[in-house]
Amino acid sequence: MKFYKAPFITFEGGEGSGKTTQIGILYDRLLQNGIDIVQYREPGGTKGAEEIRELLMEGEWERWNSTTEALLMSAARADLIQKKIIPQLEGNTWVLCDRFVDSTLAYQGYGHELGAKCIKELNHFTVGNLEPDLTFILQINAEIGLQRAGLRKAGINRFERSDVHFHQRVQKGYEEILKENPKRCFGINALLDIDVISQIIFDEVVKRFNLKF
Ligand SMILES: Nc1ncnc2c1ncn2[C@@H]1O[C@H](COP(=O)(O)OP(=O)(O)OP(=O)(O)O)[C@@H](O)[C@H]1O
Ligand SMILES: [Mg+2]
User: Fold this and answer.
1) For ligand 1, which residues put their CB under 6 angstroms from it?
2) Is residue 132 reached through a cis peptide bond, with omega within 30 degrees of 0 on the bond before it?
3) Which domains does the chain have, with CATH numbers?
4) How far is the CA of 194 from the centre of ligand 1 (A)?
5) Which of 60, 69, 101, 200 is packed most tightly, with the most Cβ within 10 A?
């Protein structure tokens, strides 16, 4: 494992679990405390990866088969890692990412049932020895998450057009990921109030990275 001084923190969870809400709150709070920090979203974060994002997020659910989807996600990720994440970490800037490899494992591995083994291999091929230092997994029941995501102003994306069973398998995937990575992953009940969750996240970051403000 390559060691960077600046932390790399990822946010994971099903649709509508609150990742984008929470990453924004943490980003603002750390920035206000004088930390040099950037945030990205997956798929996306570079010009090419944002173009791949449009291919993935728009259109009908049947637009891509599971394998193509996994490869497109990974292609976008490889571009983001090479052009942004690694240079930022090397420059000692903190990196926050809204989704990362665990999403591919949960969505394509479990949701699409491509299998954990092959997606773990794909993830390893994509990221090499880069691993998040800390991953927050927002745990939510699939039905409530989809309801919440549907209320968002941006409208629904291609993944929200899939059936609820797909999202239930995704949740199961995240539960497995939490069990398999108890040190890296920190699970949070996404039904708690936004402010309660953001404080839990901030306290954990302060503790893990030994911050003194
Ligand atoms: N803890 C919470 N309690 C109630 N509502 C919440 C909570 N967190 C977020 N929301 C609301 O739920 C909706 C989805 O939140 P958000 O966009 O942050 O989720 P997300 O995990 O990024 O979703 P997606 O996977 O679709 O990107 C938003 O309208 C947001 O305001
Ligand atoms: Mg989001």
Assistant:
1) 13, 15-21, 148-149, 151-152, 190, 192-194, 197
2) no
3) 8-207 (3.40.50.300)
4) 9
5) 101
